[in-house]
Amino acid sequence: MSNQNALLRRAGYVARARSHSPPMRSRKARAMGEPSRLLTRDERLRLTRRIRELEAENSALEQLSITDSLTGAYNRRHLESMLANDARLREHTHATALCVFDVDNFKLFNDTYGHGAGDQVLSAVARAVMRCLRAGDDYLFRLGGDEFCVLLFVDSMHETLRIVQRMQRAVKALLLPQREITGRALTISFGVAWRDGGAAAGYEAPASPCDMYHHADKMLYEAKRAGRDRIEFALL
């Protein structure tokens, strides 16, 4: 009798367990993530708009992360990324000029008129230079302080010199307190490293982007030492 009673109790447990178990179809539907209903047309439109808004916000944030907030030029981080990753530079397929420049006697200007006036000068210089650049082919970067870099994808040294001289003239034409007080125009000095396309020039080992930057920086030092308001070239 004890065995019979035990069997009856077990059967009762099984029956109760089965009565609380979810149907197999419901378990399978939940596991597969089956939607309970389809979205309405208005809901689909709202979802599409929201996705586009998020994409625009992400694009704006990405742009901010590579832009200098004071001048609107690209920042050093973006320059380093381009030098490392841009196929035109890495594969030596385009003639390229890397130009480093700074504002002549900027420290004296900053000390005389204050950092606020100095920031205005840097913003004005950046705007003047950007107006001289060609969309899609030229890029302006602020490296820090009053030092900037311009990357040009150009076909010849002659074209490089023409663009650089145009930038110098644009800065000289700025109306700033320095000109009003001292009677002298604001000037910038350039160090330029120019590299022909590797395939066209037939070089076995064209200069790397980092080599170009170091040569341009050296040429800027030479321009400063030679009297400022100058352009010094290195052919690589």
TrEMBL record:
Chain coiled-coil ranges: 37-64
Catalytic activity line of the entry: 2 GTP = 3',3'-c-di-GMP + 2 diphosphate
Stored InterPro entries: Diguanylate_Cyclase, GGDEF_dom, Nucleotide_cyclase, Rev_trsase/Diguanyl_cyclase
Gene3D superfamilies with a match to the protein in the record: 3.30.70.270
Annotated SMART domains: GGDEF
CDD domains attached to this UniProt entry: GGDEF
Alphabetized UniProt keyword annotations: Coiled coil
Molecular-function annotations in GO: diguanylate cyclase activity
Keyword set includes Coiled coil: yes
Superkingdom as given in the UniProt entry: Bacteria
GO CC terms: plasma membrane
EC number: 2.7.7.65
Span of domain GGDEF: 94-236
GO BP annotations, alphabetical order: cell adhesion involved in single-species biofilm formation; negative regulation of bacterial-type flagellum-dependent cell motility
Region (Disordered): 15-35
Alphabetized NCBIfam families for the sequence: GGDEF
Protein name: diguanylate cyclase
